[in-house]
Structures are given as C-alpha cells and as structure tokens.
Write a structure and sequence with these properties.
The complex is a heterotrimer of chains A (339), B (302) and C (229). Chain A is built from 15 helices and two strands. Chain A is mainly alpha-helical. Chain A has one domain. Chain A starts with a helix and ends in a 25-residue tail after the last helix. Chain B has one domain: ABC transporter involved in vitamin B12 uptake, BtuC (Orthogonal Bundle). Chain B has eleven helices and four strands. In chain B, strand 2 and strand 3 form a beta hairpin. In chain B, helix 5 packs antiparallel against helix 8. Chain C is an alpha/beta fold and 229 residues long. Chain C has a six-stranded mixed beta sheet, with helices on both faces. Chain C has a three-stranded antiparallel beta sheet with strand order 2-1-4, with no helix packed on it. Chain C has a two-stranded antiparallel ribbon with strand order 5-6. Chain C is globular, with a radius of gyration of 17 Å. Classes of the chains: A mainly alpha (339), B mainly alpha (302), C alpha/beta (229). Chains in contact: A-B, B-C. The interface between A and B is large, with 40 and 39 residues.
C-alpha cells in the first residue's frame, strides 16, 4: 500500500472516530478527548525546542500567555472588551474569526519568544534554564499588572467556545504530519546533529545558530496555537494559566513519554491528561471493602510526581525510550544523546 | 516618597529578616550544587517541611520555642536525607545526565509540595507567635526595630559565619570545595564523596530549617506552597553568588532581599506588584555582565 | 608490585610490573593507552579482564578513594590540581588520609623543601600558578601521603624544557627517598634517561619492554621516538 494511501485511510479513520466521539460521548468525556488533543499540540511544540533541538527551555509558558491573550483579545466581543478593559479603539472593536486568531496568536508567540529568549542564548546550560524560568515569572507578573489589557488576576471570561473536536484534532493531525516531515528533511537531520554534538555540527558546516532560531520559531508557533486552542476550550484566561506549574506539567509529559519523539510526546500527554482527569474522583474519597477512604486532594499530583521520578531514575529517556512507535520493530536509533 | 536617610535606614532594617531567610536558603542551594553539580529544586520543600514540623509541634503539642526550632531543623534534615537517598542517589547512579536529574529534582519538589497540600490543604495556617520575640525597640532617631528581626539577623549571621569558617578551614570543608572543583581529582587523594554529600545535605537542610522558623516568625504564615517562590529567590541568590561559593551565596541573599525591599520602597506603591521583575531583572543584568556570578564560583571554568 | 591486565576496548592485553624502588617508564604515541593503564591502577577504570595486583592484594575492583589508601598516589594527566584552593590547601588535600597534624605539617615542609617555588606561593590560588608550578604542585600533592607507588602521567606536558628539567631532577630525588615510580611520558628520551625499566606501548599493546639503557640503543626506538625530538 502506498504511503499516501495509508495516510488518507488513516485520516478517514480518524475522521470517523471523531464523528462518533462527537455524537456519542457525554460532555465530560468529549471535553477530555479534546483536552488531550489541545495539550498534545502544545507538548509537540515544546518538544521541538526541548526535545529535538535539545535546548532545555522553560520559557514557553510566557510565550503561550502572549498567544492566548492575543487570541482572546481578538475573539472576545467588543461589548465585553469595552466593559472590562482599556484597549485602544481599533483593538476594542475588532473581532476576528478563530483561524485568524490562531494565526495571530502563533505569530505573536513567535515574536515574544524571539525577543525574550534569544538574548538568553549566550547563557550556558543551567543559567539559561534559570533565565527561561524567569521569563515565565516576569510574563505572569506583567499579565497581572497590565490590567488594561488583561484584566489583571481577575482574568478574561466569556471567551467564545471555538475549540471543538474537529479543530483540536485537525490542528493536531496537521502538526503531527508537519513535524514528521520536518524531521525527515534536511532540517531534521541538522537538528539531530546539533542535539548530539553542537561543536561537531558547527565544524561540519551547520549553521547552529540559524537552526536553533528556526526551531524556536516553529516550536513557539505551534505552542502558541496550542495555547489558543486551550483558551477557547476553557473559555477563561488568567495570568496563572501558563505559569511554572503548567510548564512543569508539560515537561513531565515529555519526560515520561520520551523527549524527542512524536509518539513519546503523545503518550506522555495522554498519560498525564487522561490519567489526571480519570484518577481525580479517587481524590474525593471513596469506600473500599467497607472502609471509608477519606478525600485526599493532591494525591493524583503526588502520584504523577512519583511516576516522574521513577521514570527518570529507571528509564530516563521516557517510556518510549527514544523511539517512535513505528520504529519499535527496527534497530534502535539514538535520536538524542545526553545533554 | 521620602528619600530621607531615616526612611532608607528603616527599610534596610525591615529587610534584614527577609535577607537572612534568603541567605540561609542560598547557602543550601549553593553547597549542594557545588558538590553534586545539581540544582536541588526540592530545597524549597525542605524549607517548607521544616516550617510545618515546627508549626505542628508547637500548635498541637504546645512545646517551647527551642523544641519547635529544633523540630524544624530535624524535619528539614530528615527530608533532605530522604530526597538524597531516594531521588538523587539512585538517579545519579543510573542516569546521571544533567537534564534527567534536573527533571527528577523538580519531580521531587512537586511531589513533596502536593503531598503536603494533600495532608494539610492549600490554605495558610498561622505560625505560632512566641513571647520573647515580640516587642519593638525604638531608637532615638525614631527607627523601629523588631526584636524578632534582631534575633533572626543575629542567628543567621552566626550560622553564616560558622558555615563559612567550616568550609574554609575544616578538612571536610576544604574537601567539599575540592570535590566541587574536580570530583575525580578529589577521589584520587582519597576523598569519599558519599559522606561529603551527606554532610552537604545536612548543613544545607539545617540552614533551611532555621530559615523556615525565621520565615514563620517573620510572616506568621505557613502553607505548602511557601517553599516555592522563596526557594526560587534563594536559588537566584545562590546563582548570583557564584556556584559553590558559600559566603558569596549569603551575601547575595542579602543583596536580593534588601534590593527587593528597597525597590518597593523607592517606587510609588502601585509598583509594588512588580517585585519579581526586579529580582529577575537584577539576575539577568548580572548574568549578562558577569555570567559566573558576583563572586568566584567553586567550579572549574571551561 | 603491579601486575597485568586486559581491557578490551582500549587496551588489548597488556602486562607490566613495577618492582620496589625502581622507576618504570611507560612510553608511546598518543592514544596508545598509557593513560588508560594509569587509570586502571588508580581505580578510575576497572579492567574488563585480568587484574591489578599491588603488594599481593588484588585492587582491580577497588574504588579510587580506597586505592589511594593502599599507598598508591597519582599526579594525573593535565595536572588536575584544585584551582579554587590555595597551594597550601591543595597540599593538605593530598594528606587527606593522613593522620596527625604534626605529621602533616612535617610533610608539607618537606614538599616545600623539594619545591621552594611552592612555598613562595603557598597562599595563592592554585589556578593562578604557572604550568610548571602547577605540575610541581600536582606532584607535591601526590607525595603528601608518602606513597610507595607514585604514578606520574605526562609531567612534562606543555612545559618549557628548562622547567621540565627542574621537575625531572625532583622526580629523581623522590625516587631516592624510596618510592617506586611509574612514569608515563611522551618525551621518550627523558623517560628512558631517568628510568631503569621501560615499556613501549602502541595501540593498546606492549610492543617492547626491557631495561631502559638497552631500549635507548634499540634501533626501532631510536627511529620511531628518539629521532623526532
């Protein structure tokens, strides 16, 4: 079977599943399925920079914030904006469609990450990580304080509910396909070389800085889109939404599933999103064999943290061990050496 | 906005406690970073758990301040040892890549924080007050000095001095600096780094415990997330002071603490919410100008 | 004292022996496995097969910090002094396993006698020393625990000839005081001059061995190593 046929059939299958999900799943489960896709998009975007290019940056929370607020400001009704915010007139009266908002969100995420993170490039290893954490905190702080634009910590509400299962999985499928092709192209090979040994790659004639910048651009655009999708699913936005807690969750997903692979990212996203949601009821206390087990909020997070530590100790490359699902049968390819 | 001498001095006095809290935490971070080469993200939780130990014992068993104080230290040290034994030791043995240990480190941090949120709930609880710490001295020029601030500053100064002397003159102290610089060469002169690591954790955690009591006494609040932001600021101080440099970390703790307070004091009140920006801005500025920190780090450069 | 071992990856079956009181030279080109050999002895690497025996004890699997305790001391390639410590502190670290403050003080003053330059700079940070002084410090640190076997890896590396001469004089003095020395050296001429026995290593194997004065006159050695100076 030709590759294109395979892909088309796969898409058809996916479409079928989505249709069934849309028609038959109850609201809660449907939302969960959509949430997974949205989170996956974000995680894949992060994976480009953190995984494939091996730059461990935690600053994507800040850029997601920029994307989310941008898109929200574009899709919110002028009436709401007028009532709650202090915007310049052209912005206040603007209301765009969802795709436009997504693209703008992505674009601004790219601009933000370029301005904020590139200067930090000259810092080494741990310092860069620290600086990227700082970006998050500073952005969060700015969001709290620029009340005219963001409504401070009270946040924005009544964001139109554009994200449905079709948008979420549509974007996800596109992103997966795009990344897959990207990695196989010349760009991808250069990235692998850079991630393994930067200096060697430079000596071989690869313009390391250029490729890093390209990674950042692509990664932040995708992450931005993920943020926009999320905001139009959750329908509210506040400065804490993409703070360090969220950032660490995404990193945990990548780490558990396997940094540097598409399947790893998806599996990690699945485990964390679905696992957290589905295990939540346990937190509210239940009866087991006649004993009443008391509520324990935070238990799921504790379990996830334990899982993370255990995986880091025993399987540092994540569950997928650095391989894609479709590579499992074949020989192991070392995609990303240790940093 | 007054720029008077009086006002500035008052602000500096107010900042003594906060600076002390940060200084003690910074030393913990820098020691562990120096000897193990890893950022102990869970240090903030070691701090928090120490505070909770003290809180619990004093509030529910009515013990004296001294007992509570040592309980905090005990709690912090216990946590530190557990983290070393169950997270860092196995991780460094099997998967010593920088990134992996890093992620494990904040996995530990998240886990502990959520564990305590689970047990105690997210809310803030009142840290007990102690009589001998209450009271204010008012100087002739009208400056207010809290007794508790004096205590905190005094104890911190003593501990910082003690630790600095330890690391400068004692055999394990010099050995720790040696290991921070070149662990292999240290082994070649017979240093068993395993014991030294435990010493580093012990000292770092003890100081964190003291810092926790200082925080509780100063701000009167404990909650499971308290270690998070303060820890981060403490870590920034450690980085600022040069990795592995104990006195450097302490001084930087005070710089950041006082800097933050002064920043807020000198700007109109509406700007106080941007405190974090000051801290991070300072960090970026210094890293930009002097990437290895204000003082000489204890690691091999290059 | 030290007996043979294999380590398949870098070393392909080598065997060497150092007897008490002698200086043994280990020479050969870059990548021959000389440093790997040293590291097998210090315990930084463990041999994949074969063993390392010292004074009758098998130390093949012993961790480095304990091997030092058996009387083996090393001045590694690249010197590896503690740059953030003073000269004095470096020497004190050399005596890490030694007990008795008076004892340590005496030894330090003996090192100062041997290397007066170090005494001059005793309060200075080690990283501010010149290359030659750092090498002296490395050796000084290594003899602080009065080793019975001293390993010297490339002591002449990167140093001016005058300095190298001085250092080699001191090495000879150290041997006179009773230590056995295993010397890894790229400068073959120097190495053969000072040693009694030598092993020539190439590509992880011992190609030649024998008394140094014999090897000095060996045509292969002269052609390959002594001609290119």
């Amino acid at each position: 079977m030709k590759k294109t046929t395979k892909i088309l059939l796969g898409l058809l299958l996916l479409a079928g599943l989505l249709f069934m999900a849309d028609s038959f799943l109850r609201g809660y489960y449907l939302r969960l399925v959509v949430l997974f896709a949205v989170t996956a998009v974000t995680a894949l975007g992060v994976n480009i920079v953190n995984g494939y290019t091996n730059i461990f940056s935690l600053g994507f929370g800040g850029t997601m914030m920029v994307a989310a607020y941008t898109a929200a400001l574009l899709t919110l009704s002028p009436a709401y904006k007028k009532a709650v915010l202090h915007l310049p007139l052209w912005l206040e009266q603007m209301q765009t469609s969802f795709p436009v908002a997504m693209l703008c969100g992505g674009a601004l995420a790219v601009i933000a990450s370029t301005i904020l993170l590139l200067p930090a490039f000259r810092l080494q290893g741990q310092y860069f990580i620290l600086a990227s954490m700082g970006v998050n905190i500073v952005m969060g702080n700015l969001a709290e304080n620029l009340r005219g634009f963001t409504h401070g910590d009270m946040g924005l509400r009544s964001i139109p509910a554009y994200t449905n299962i079709w948008w979420a999985y549509g974007v996800l499928a596109l992103v997966v396909y795009f990344i897959h092709r990207l990695i196989q192209s010349k760009y991808g090979r250069a990235l692998v070389a850079i991630s393994k040994d930067q200096e060697l790659a430079a000596v071989m004639g690869i313009n390391v800085v250029k490729y890093k910048i390209v990674s950042f651009v692509i990664g932040s655009f995708i992450t931005g889109m993920g943020a926009v999708l999320w905001v139009h699913l959750v329908l509210t936005m506040n400065p804490k939404a993409f703070g360090l807690v969220y950032v660490f969750q995404i990193v945990a997903m990548l780490a558990i599933g396997g940094i540097g692979t598409i399947s790893g990212t998806l599996i990690g996203a699945a485990i964390l999103t679905l696992g957290t949601e589905l295990l939540s009821p346990v937190q509210e206390g239940f009866s087991l064999l006649g004993f009443q087990i008391p509520p324990a909020f935070g238990l799921v997070n504790v379990l996830m943290a334990v899982l993370l530590v255990v995986i880091m100790i025993y399987k540092p490359r994540g569950i997928m061990n650095g391989r894609e699902i479709w590579e499992v049968a074949g020989p192991r390819v070392r995609k990303n050496a240790s940093s | 906005m007054e720029m008077s001498w009086h006002y500035l001095t008052q602000q500096l006095i107010n900042a003594l406690s906060y600076g002390s809290i940060l200084a003690l935490l910074a030393i913990g971070y820098t020691m562990i970073y120096g000897i193990l080469g890893l950022i102990n993200f869970a240090h903030g939780e070691i701090f928090m758990i120490g505070a909770f130990f003290c809180y619990m014992l004093v509030t529910f068993s009515g013990v004296s301040f001294l007992t509570g104080f040592f309980a905090a230290i005990a709690g912090s040290v216990l946590t530190g040892f557990l983290i070393e034994r169950f997270v860092y030791n196995p991780c460094l043995k099997r998967s010593p890549e920088v990134l992996t240990v890093f992620i494990a480190s904040f996995g530990a941090s998240l886990g502990l924080r959520n564990l305590f949120t689970m047990i105690f709930g997210d809310g803030r609880r009142s840290f007990p007050a102690f009589d001998f710490l209450e009271g204010i001295i008012i100087t002739e020029s009208g400056i207010f000095i809290n007794i508790k601030d004096l205590w905190i500053f005094g104890v911190t100064l003593f501990l910082v001095l003690a630790t600095t002397l330890f690391i400068k003159y004692t055999k394990p102290g010099i050995a720790m600096r040696a290991v921070a610089y070149d662990a292999n060469a240290a082994r070649l002169v017979g240093v068993n780094s395993t014991t030294l690591v435990l010493v580093a954790f012990f000292i770092g955690s003890t100081l964190a415990g003291v810092s926790a009591v200082a925080y509780g006494v100063s701000y009167g609040i404990v909650n499971p997330s308290m270690g998070y932001i303060i820890g981060l600021n403490g870590f920034i101080a450690a980085v600022l002071g040069g990795i592995g440099n104990v006195p450097g970390a302490a001084i930087s703790g005070y710089i950041i603490g006082m800097g933050e307070i002064m920043f807020v004091a000198l700007l109109p009140p509406s700007y106080s919410a941007v405190r974090p920006i000051f801290v991070w801005g300072l960090l970026f500025l210094i890293l930009f100008l002097k990437p290895s920190g204000l003082f000489r780090p204890n690691v091999k450069i290059g | 004292m030290v007996a043979g071992y294999d380590k398949a990856q870098v070393l392909h079956g080598i065997s060497l022996e150092v007897h008490p009181g002698e200086i043994v030279a280990l020479v050969g080109p870059n990548g021959a496995g000389k440093t790997t050999t040293i590291r097998c002895i210090t315990g930084e690497i463990h041999p994949m097969s074969g063993k390392v025996q010292y004074n009758g004890t098998d130390i093949s699997e012993m961790p480095s910090h304990r091997i030092v305790g058996t009387g083996i001391s090393c001045s590694p390639e690249g010197r590896n002094i503690f740059g953030n410590l003073t000269v004095y502190e470096n020497l004190k670290m050399g005596a890490y396993l030694v007990h008795g403050r008076k004892n340590i003080k005496e030894r330090i003053s003996r090192v100062y006698d041997l290397f007066p330059k170090l005494k001059e700079r005793k309060g200075q940070l080690a990283e501010s020393l010149s290359g030659g002084e750092q090498q002296m410090l490395a050796i000084g640190r290594a003899i602080m625990n009065e080793p019975t076997l001293l390993l010297l890896d490339e002591p002449s590396l990167g140093l001016a000839p005058v300095v190298v001469e001085q250092i080699y004089e001191k090495i000879a003095e150290i041997r006179r005081e009773g230590a056995s020395i295993l010397l890894v050296e790229q400068n073959v001429g120097l190495a053969l001059e000072i040693s009694q026995k030598a092993y020539v290593m190439e590509s992880g194997q011992v190609k030649l061995s024998g008394r140094s004065e014999t090897l000095e006159k060996d045509p292969y050695v002269i052609d390959t190593y002594l001609g290119v100076m």
